[in-house]
Amino acid sequence: MKNLIRLRLLVAACTLTVAQFAQAHAYPKQEMPAPKAVVDSSITQVKIVFDDALEGAFSSLSVTNAAGQTVTTEKSLLDAGDKKTLTVAVPKLQPGVYTVHWVAVAEDSHRTHGDYTFTVK
Question: Is 114 among the domain residues?
Fold first, then answer.
């Protein structure tokens, strides 16, 4: 009887573990520039490395200035060799606070999003 209970508990634990992996979401693992970073105006791109592979057609990065105006003029790009890395080019930025807005759609179609700020000195 004890073995049957142990087996059922083991099966339940395995089922929960597999279900968690099936519900994977992509979250930032590394942001460049980092949140709250102070950088100089030589910055040419914003890059985020996620913890899961992304669908490039549905994932995006954009950057806005303190007035809420979008400063990015190009589409964000998913790295062809690493589907976890998303970049967007930025023009020469004036001193101020900028906000990075990101949308990540994992290959399993789960969507996450967020934003963070950095400062150009």
Answer: yes
* CATH number of the domain within which 87 lies: 2.60.40.1220
Compute CA distances 117 → 57, 89, 95, whole Å: 24, 16, 13
Confidence of residue 38 (pLDDT cuts 50, 70, 90): very high
Q: Which two tokens stand for residue 7?
A: 């087996």
Tell me: pLDDT of 19 over 70: no
The number of distinct structural domains making up the chain is 1
Sorted by sequence, the CB contacts under 8 Å of residue 29 that are 6+ apart come out as 49, 50, 51, 84
The whole-number average pLDDT for the span 64-92 is 97
| Domain around 94 | 25-120
Residue 109 zone, left/alpha/beta (φ > 0; ψ -120 to 50; rest):
left
Q: What is the pTM of this model?
A: 0.80
